[in-house]
Design goal:
Strand order of the largest sheet: 1-2
Structural class: mainly alpha
Keywords: Membrane, Transmembrane, Transmembrane helix
Strand content: under 5%
Number of helices: 13
Distance between the termini: 8 Å
Helix content: 55-70%
Protein name: DUF5009 domain-containing protein
Organism: Chitinophaga oryzae
Length: about 375
């Protein structure tokens, strides 16, 4: 995500907020978490379910600055940049899930076999959505991009309904996305966080997620052109409200569901992002209130790097052991739970972990180091 978008502080703050809260919700402590920091069990949503799609929306915002440079490049150069970035982000995500490449067993450390590695995931979805959205935006006119986006949303709905298990089309076991993932990748290459094979970043649900990036891109263009006027803000807010209303109308037949990334969920999250961005522009640009924004811009200047850092640190905290228990649990149980037992102690750990990543980002920013992929 390019540095040029720093010209618009609200966009930078929005991007930084998404990274900040992604780190918090991904590093809950051992004493349980408050409901806003949990994902919805299945249908419905919580504030946590807004974080990932907002990150994709922010990717689209940043693309609205970088894609203009592609207009002066030849076809081969454009494809090279898009495919290179897509491949690198995907590879980083894949290696992150495999890292540290060994695991604890009764006989000691053993190599984690390729046959048990997860192929898709958060960074992989970011990579694929970026790649697909970039190709659409570069090669199609605006109306064509929106037509394909509509096809992704309605086509995904149709595939789930007609190709899923009858009576359980929107269930965790009967949805068509899971069947496709098992067919293409096999159960061992899927996420098992639910206690069985099911990947919330599966192949099929990637296509509606592309629309979050597309919406972020065109919102970024709109902000550059008209977003700093009251009329522009009203249009953005009105569009956000309309999308939320449409999302809940669609929810009656196609439930809002983050783990399936349903089309109604896309409309809901884009609508909320539009409202939040409108609020930030009103507060920061129109009212001139910038106090505290520097905290979030630290995350916004190195977003992918700091997210990756947070995930790698969490993996290492879980991997290294102290007295037979993971360092992650040991820190929680020895420091944060005695300080405040239960959910508040877990929240303190999450905040401390996020601040650790922020310090790294702050030091990089002070040295003008911005890691790009």
């Amino acid at each position: 995500m390019t540095q040029s978008s720093q010209r618009f502080l609200p966009l930078d703050v929005f991007r930084g907020m998404t990274v900040c809260f992604m780190i918090i919700v991904n590093t809950g402590g051992t004493g349980g978490t408050y409901w806003p920091l949990d994902h919805a069990p299945w249908h419905g949503w919580t504030p946590t379910d807004l974080v990932f799609p907002s990150f994709l929306f922010a990717v689209g915002n940043a693309m609205s600055f970088s894609m203009r440079k592609y207009e002066q490049l030849g076809n081969a150069a454009v494809l090279g940049k898009i495919f290179k970035r897509t491949f690198l982000i995907f590879l980083l995500g894949y290696l992150m899930y495999w890292f540290p490449f060994v695991e604890h067993t009764d006989a000691g450390l053993a190599f984690k076999p390729f046959s048990d590695t997860r192929i898709l995931g958060v960074l992989q979805r970011i990579a694929l959505c970026y790649g697909i959205a970039s190709l659409l935006i570069h090669y199609l006119p605006k109306k064509g991009v929106w037509a394909v986006s509509a096809l992704f949303l309605f086509g995904y709905w149709a595939i789930l309904w007609f190709c899923g298990t009858p009576g359980d089309q929107y269930g965790i076991h009967g949805n068509a996305g899971l069947a496709l993932d098992k067919l293409v990748m096999g159960e061992n290459h899927l996420y098992h966080g639910e206690g069985f094979a099911f990947d919330p970043e599966g192949i099929l649900s990637t296509f509606p997620a592309v629309v979050n990036v597309v919406a972020g891109y065109y919102t970024g263009l709109f902000v550059q052109q008209k977003g700093r006027t009251q009329q522009g803000l009203l249009r953005m807010a009105a569009a956000g409200i309309l999308l939320i209303v449409l999302a809940y109308a669609w929810n009656t037949v196609f439930p809002i569901n983050k783990k399936l990334w349903t089309s109604s969920y896309v409309l809901l999250t884009v609508g909320i992002d539009l409202l939040l961005l409108s609020f930030l522009i009103q507060l920061i640009d129109m009212a001139g209130f910038t106090k505290g924004t520097g905290f979030f811009t630290v995350f916004g200047k190195n977003p992918l790097f700091l997210y990756l850092l947070s995930e790698v640190l969490a993996i290492l905290f879980h991997f290294f052991q102290v007295g037979g228990t993971s360092l992650y649990r040991w820190i929680n149980d020895q420091f944060f739970q005695p300080l405040s037992p239960g959910k508040f102690g877990s929240l303190l750990f999450s905040l401390a972990f996020m601040l650790l990543c922020w310090i790294v980002g702050y030091l990089l920013d002070k040295r003008k180091i911005y890691v790009r992929v």
